[in-house]
Amino acid sequence: MDLSELMSLLLSKGVDYVIVQLPNWISRKEVSREDAEFILMYAMMNRLDEMSKKIDGLGNKIDELGKKIDVRLDELSRKIDDLRKEVVDRLDLISNQLRVLNSNIAATYELTSKVMTRLMESSIAPART
What we know:
90% helix, 0% strand, mainly alpha
């Protein structure tokens, strides 16, 4: 079998068919060593091309996934910033309410002290007749 017949089989039946048949052809000496080497190199190139296409496709998918992850991280970052601002605002409100409460307690204590002082003064003072 000459090289042109092998190439014809490669193109018509595919690389897999020729690779499966190649050991039989070599053992029956239908294919020369040089032709077999050429066919094997062709088969390896074919496989490398297929792998390259798969890798390119995988690379594109990885790039798309990376972009999706970037978008999700940006969204998450915005949500975290919004949540942080909301928590800070609430803590400021609570702090202000506590200051007002503290002032009210201080004012109540002051008034209570004055009332107690007046009561004690009135109970100690002698009764006038």
